[in-house]
Amino acid sequence: FRAGTKRMLLAYRVIHLMYGTSYFFQLGPLIMPDPHKCNLPLALQLPFLPPDRNMVYYCINYAHHLLLNTIGVFILLPMDGVLIVALLNICTRIAALQLLLEELDTKLGTVQWQQTAHLDAELNRIIELHIDTKRFARVIYETYQMHFFSMFSVLCFVICMCMNVVARDPRSTLIPFGLASTGQLFVICMLGNVLYIVSDRLKDSVYGIRWYRCTVSQQKRLL
Fold this sequence. Notes:
Layout: H1 2-20, H2 28-31, H3 55-108, H4 120-168, H5 175-208, H6 216-222
Helix pairs in contact: 1-3, 3-4, 3-5, 4-5
């Protein structure tokens, strides 16, 4: 659990760094000016304040884009950060279950058949941790179900839009934005896939121990 806590803290710091780099998108007009967007980061301008009229209007529009970016970061960072940390937490719990099963298997190999009543406490600990992990995973799924749907829909739309623009203009300023969206989608999909693989291995860990040496009641609770 200590190693899992360190991994979760590291992941959360990396997420902070990834979302913090989104502010480099604001430097796009300086690196790759785009007159179609009035040299602004986004193709968006405030009404009645055209940025190409004077420098004051341009600065106001630029500050507006910076504010939108900040709001987006402060909204998405806690949501995606908690989601990623929760997925890592579930993986850590499953790894702890596998470790407890290995320890139980070692002890089962040193006792006589059907003489395992003294291992009830360890078996109950494994079962309780498994139930808590399933409950926690269900809460995460129910909480982030709509977030998953909206995030994947928006990211897929953004990636397709960026690819369409970049195909027409390879020097488009949307390239960093498209890469950031692809990276966000990749991280969520990768962690979900890792969780699926780890949870699938848990069944093999359960059937891999010498459960047949337990008492009948323990076998029923374990399997």
